[in-house]
Amino acid sequence: AQKITQTQPGMFVQEKEAVTLDCTYDTSDPSYGLFWYKQPSSGEMIFLIYQGSYDQQNATEGRYSLNFQKARKSANLVISASQLGDSAMYFCAMREMLTGANSKLTFGKGITLSVRP
Amino acid sequence: DVKVTQSSRYLVKRTGEKVFLECVQDMDHENMFWYRQDPGLGLRLIYFSYDVKMKEKGDIPEGYSVSREKKERFSLILESASTNQTSMYLCASNQANYGYTFGSGTRLTVV
Predict the structure, then answer these.
(1) Which stretches of chain A sit within 8 Å of chain B by CB?
(2) Chain A residues with CB inside 8 Å of B101's CB?
(3) Is B60 buried (19+), middle (13-18) or exposed (0-12) by CB count in 10 A?
(4) How far is Cα A95 from Cα A104, in angstroms, rounded to an integer?
(5) pLDDT, block means (10 residues), chain A with 117 residues
(6) Is residue A65 a contact partner of residue A50, using CB atoms and an 8 Å limit?
């Protein structure tokens, strides 16, 4: 079974609107971390936000927030007030703290987001 | 500014050639990783290293090897390049359980 699932096809959003990018995960490890990365067309991977499995509150970083629903094993990224520069591929990733080896991350297949002016 | 530097942005090699992809980090990180990225498949882990001269296989190690002789440098080696190794290769490093810092990637084409 896939550990990280991102099934949305290419997503489109109007500039200044909010958009949610879905991510579900599968683990039996009680301690894990969830990450979102952005990859613009230039290719570099940019860290956006992190959520630990024991964190009491949903993570937020500026216009990015993580809608963490532990029981449903979902960690959706919410981007508020979309900007043209948000057009990119977005990857969800997980680190399993106890069963995972040496802090490696497992990535999903990614979601392409296009922001329309 | 902390950095992970990959020696080549674009590379074209012939089938059967031995190919070296170099990655250097200046953050004194313990852990270093090599991923390949293919459309529709996301990032897949090839090899990682958590210390000098130590290496661990990732999910798709076949056809690759690695070398880590110094803490700051992690090399990915394609012993005999094949066309199915045409891909984007991403190097990353981190310390303990912190997030990754990625290099800018090497787009390798094997012809």
Answers:
(1) 4, 6, 33, 35, 37, 42-45, 47, 50, 91, 93, 95, 97, 101-110
(2) 47
(3) middle
(4) 6
(5) 86 96 94 94 92 93 96 97 97 83 83 96
(6) no
